[in-house]
Amino acid sequence: YRKKSKEPNKVELLGNEPAKSASPDSNVPGVIAQPDSYEHLLELLDDPVRKALDSLPQEFRIAVIMSDLQDYSYKEIADVMNCPIGTVMSRLFRGRRLMREYLEKSKNEADTSSPPPKTRLRKQRTKV
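Below the sequence we write its predicted structure tokens.
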């Protein structure tokens, strides 16, 4: 009885089958681990945000998607990912920071690659 009461509750999101790419000991449902499973959520995002999210390592990406797109609590994410809440908080912080850096970098590259706006030069008036 004590052992069962100390075990965290498991939360099944959308599927029961584990991901093919996930490790066997991973407790992340296959639906979350596979990029195709959250494609409908990504369609709602702008292209730069989608690219930033795809650039994240899998464990950061899963935490960010579950928290920011699917509105899961830290506890629910920790239960699904089979890790402590502190780890979830750390992954969210790092994932969001990496996304912010990616977006800032891509914005700066876009700003430097576009030509400066054309400005009309005023003729200098000469006094007569």
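Residues 66 and 77 are 7 Å apart (CA to CA).
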